[in-house]
Amino acid sequence: MTRLLILRHAAPLTGGRLAGRTDVDADCSDAAAFDWIRARIGQIGRVLSSPARRCLQTAEALSMPPHATSQALWEQDYGAWEGLAYGDLPDLGPLPPARLARHRPEGGESFDDMAARVLTELRGIDRDTLIVGHAGTVRAALSMVVGPAALSFAVAPLSLTVLRRAGDDWAVEFVNVTAP
Predict the structure, then answer these.
(1) Is residue 91 part of a domain?
(2) Which SMART domains does its entry note (predicted)?
(3) How far apart are CA 98 and CA 7, in angstroms?
(4) What percentage of the chain exceeds 90 in pLDDT?
(5) Bridge partner list, 2
(6) Rounded distance, CA 20 to CA 81, Å?
(7) Please, which residues have CB within 8 angstroms of residue 70's CB and are 6 or more apart in sequence?
């Protein structure tokens, strides 16, 4: 059995703007939360990270430097939406999860596009691994179990999600666990 621990980076310092591929810093000031998450993760043999600065800073604050980074683990590219204030993002209205997963912002990628590259990376993991990534990384991993309904999961900053694999079958142990 292989365990995949996915930690969303600490709160991004975006000034209230969408930062998918925009490289921003993380707020790594909550030492108690980092201590709690580090204890929850425990001993892990391999750490893999998105190359985003916010992910690398989170790994450093955990004292768990990545063994490698992967371009495949970058957050979704929101194209024309990058840098928009959250209140200025277009309202797509109610969409079924599968249709929302296919929606591609102008000049960007859909959730399905992002998940395809992330899942290629995740499916190649053959030992217990901690991934320091993004909300999209977590949802992509969850999509291996629940499909496009993964878009409905909340993924808080500095939250831990754990999946396990036996053969080709993935199961969810827990999602979005944060320090008390």
Answers:
(1) no
(2) PGAM
(3) 25
(4) 98
(5) 165
(6) 9
(7) 48, 49, 50, 51, 121
CATH of the domain at 44: 3.40.50.1240
Q: Long-range contacts for 142-145 (Cβ within 8 Å, ≥24 apart)?
A: 142/172, 142/175, 143/101, 143/115, 143/119, 144/119, 144/170, 145/170, 145/171, 145/172
Q: How far is CA 34 from CA 65, 75, 77, 88, 148, in A?
A: 14, 22, 28, 32, 30
Structure tokens at 46: 């391999």
63: phi then psi, degrees, rounded to nearest 5:
60, 35
pLDDT tens for 59-94 read 999 999 999 999 999 999 999 999 999 999 999 999
* Domain carrying residue 19: 2-85+96-177
**11 belongs to a structural domain:** yes
Q: Which two tokens stand for residue 60?
A: 């450093």
Report the domain count for the chain. Answer: 1
pLDDT at 168 over 90: no
Nearest CA among 65, 83, 68 for reference residue 18: 83
